[in-house]
């Protein structure tokens, strides 16, 4: 059953292309794109890394659109793209790094509550320490990835075409 669901998910992901990279104009570029942003964040110790991680937004020019909805109006497909640069800090030892998370993400929401995400370019990808589908960590991806979030909080990453930096190791 798991293999069939994964195969169906990958077919669904392949059937609709990922969001295009932002144009050189830096704007939404039409097509229903609206500005969005990522707020600063704090991830408590033990949730993703063994230590508390603070994220300060250095640059943020993100856009989003919803090209498909369910009959009740909830998003079925959403695209995110644009510039996002984050300073990650281990609040315990003060170490920090700045990482480029500029890329695009297409999110498919399935009726069973699962979500499939296509990541392209650089993206931030936190994975809970208690996750059973992939080792926990606060990752910066570079390349093309498919992420499956299942009901109950399990995150799987069946397609990994690129590199992943685990910031939990970088900042330790």
Number of helices: 2
Which residue ranges are poorly predicted, with pLDDT under 50 across at least 5 consecutive positions? 1-27
Largest sheet composition: 9 strands, antiparallel
Distance between the termini: 39 Å
Radius of gyration: 16 Å
Structural class: mainly beta
The total strand number stands at: 9
Portion in strands: over 45%
Mean pLDDT: 87
Q: How would you sum up the global shape?
A: globular
Helix content: 10-25%
Q: Summarize the helix and strand pattern as letters.
A: HEEEEEEEEEH
Sum this structure up briefly.
The protein has 172 residues and is mostly beta strands. It contains two helices and nine strands, in the order αβββββββββα.
Would you kindly provide a written description of the structure presented here, covering whatever features stand out?
By secondary structure, the protein is mainly beta. Helix content is 11%, strand content 53%. Strands 1, 2, 3, 4, 5, 6, 7, 8 and 9 form a 9-stranded antiparallel beta sheet that branches. The N terminus is likely disordered.
